[in-house]
Structures are given as structure tokens and as C-alpha cells.
Amino acid sequence: MEILAYIAAVIAAIAFVVLVVYMVITLKAARETLHNVSETLSSLEQQVQGVTEETTQLLTKTNQLADDMNQKSSKLNSLFDGFKGVGNTITEFNHSLRELTNSVSRAANKNPEKTSQAIKWGTTLMELWKKKNK
């Protein structure tokens, strides 16, 4: 029976040695895998930093372009306001000219004799002016 106990102890010792050998092999494989993961993460970190820098530069340029567009847009707005002012002035001039024409027409209708005399004098003056400038 003692022999059985020795045989069992030897088998247990061999099993323990086999277990330790497989554990060492597994731990070496795990260490190599962790080393590869560490290198991959380092490479990935560098790539992310590069992308972050490029993104920051792109955002800066985009903001500069947006500011430039806003400045140019405000300048165009003032230009269009100026055009609007010119349009209003022309409209007012047309209105004044229409009122003047209506006033002259009413005056001509009230005094047809004076109107025809004024037209004759105007025609005469225009002919004299043309002759003088030739």
C-alpha cells in the first residue's frame, strides 16, 4: 500500500510538472500577445494624434474661411443697400418729374396762347443756340 502511495505521489508530481510546463508556455504566449497589443495601441495612438492635428488645422482653416465669407457678405449687404438708395432716388426723381410734367401740362391747358408763344420763343432760342455753336 505504501507503494501505491509513492506511485500516486510520483503521478501527482509528474502531473504538477506537466501543469507548470503548460502554464509557463501559456504565460509566454500571453506575454507575447500582450506585447503585440501594446505595439498596436502605440501605433494607433500615433495615428490618432496625427488625425487630431489635421482635423484641428482643417477646423481652423474652415473658421477662417467662414469669417472671410461673413466679412464679404456684410460688404455686399452695404453695397445692396447703396443700390436700394439709388433706386429710391430714381423713383423719387421720376415722381418729381411726373409732377412737373403734370404741372406744366395743367398750366399749358389754362393759358393756350401763352403756351404757344413760349414754345415759339423756345424754338427760336434753340435755333440761335445751334447757329452759335456751329
Automatic annotation (TrEMBL):
InterPro entries per UniProt: UPF0478
Coiled coil regions in record: 27-54
Lineage: Bacteria, Bacillati, Bacillota, Bacilli, Bacillales
Name the UniProt record assigns to this protein: Uncharacterized protein YoxC, contains an MCP-like domain
Domain of life where this protein originates: Bacteria
Transmembrane segments: 6-25
Source organism: Virgibacillus chiguensis
Protein keywords: Coiled coil, Membrane, Transmembrane, Transmembrane helix
